[in-house]
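Work Package 4 report. The design task specified in the project plan requires that, given a folded chain encoded as structure tokens, an amino acid be chosen for each position. We show below one input record used in the internal validation round.
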């Protein structure tokens, strides 16, 4: 999706810049046409990150999804669907 800025597991740091992924560069360079697919990919990756990271699930989901064009209600629905609300 955004070349060079991909996650490294299990730390979920960016391979390109070492920032927590999805990093600022990934978020800035994500084009509007890519956003619908990105939401699907990010949701799947967020579930994996919940398993990998020692962070509260709601924090991981906010990190992965709150910058997308989803509404707050959409993000909360994702949180509920993963059993973490």
């Amino acid at each position: 999706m955004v070349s060079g800025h991909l996650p490294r597991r299990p730390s979920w740091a960016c391979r390109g810049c070492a920032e927590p992924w999805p990093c600022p560069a990934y978020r800035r360079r994500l084009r509007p046409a890519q956003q619908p697919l990105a939401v699907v990919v990010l949701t799947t990756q967020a579930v994996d990150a919940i398993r990998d990271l020692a962070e509260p699930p709601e924090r991981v989901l906010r990190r992965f999804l709150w910058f997308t064009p989803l509404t707050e209600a959409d993000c909360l629905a994702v949180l509920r669907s993963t059993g973490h609300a």
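Strands lie at 7-8, 13-14. Validation will be extended to a larger panel in the next phase.
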